[in-house]
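**Fold tokens**
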Amino acid sequence: MISVTKIRTVAKYVFLTIVSLISIFPLYWMAVSATHASIDVIRGALLPGNYLFKNLSNLLGASDVSGAMINSFKYSIMMTILALFICSLAGYGFEIYHDKAKDAIMAILLLAMMVPFVAIMIPLFQMFSKWGLLNSTLGFLLPTLSTPFLIMLFRQSARSFPHDILEAARLDGLNEFNIFLRIFIPTMKSTYASAAIITFMGAWNSYLWPKVIMTEKTSITMPMLVANLKEGYVTDYGVLMLAVLLCSIPTVIIFFVLQKQFAEGITGAVK
């Protein structure tokens, strides 16, 4: 006779399998649609077709995909490296040199998370326009180079950092900055991995601010390129799905490569 425990286990796995299939279906449909003509996409084709190379040819002929891809990688990688360094240094300082004044400053930073970015977008555009930062990498990076969320993430992770190591490093003659570089960063690799995923995906998928600040075609990113494909009276959905697929692949790869470290970093930060 089958036990109740086995029935529950089977039911659990069946439920998880169904949920997983539902979750990956949009990605599957997007990949399949990229291999069909627009009319077949509208009809709801669910099996791979033979129109992939035609869609790729149309996409490359209509848009500067390589330029947009290079811009997206350049902006996202630079944003990730700089944001991780600045925010981890800030979070480390807030926790290791903890006092009431720093708590007050941290509270103000967290309040800034409640202000929607669209509320400051027009003033930022006017300011950056006067500074000559339109269509520049610096103009893309500055508004989100340091975020309260990342600072809080690193601050929470720094709470688990053993203070005995700090004292030992100071006795060995390391200054505070070298302690951060040589000890804190290698120790908190999982937190850096989770922060890197969050930052890279946010920068890669960013659309509204680049749409405002990047006014030249040579400066567009992949999300902007995808949005441009929907302009006009007729939309080629096969080409559109192929562009969306190309735009999604880098973030999917990065997440799957670093998913273990991402889970460890987030778990360590919320303890």
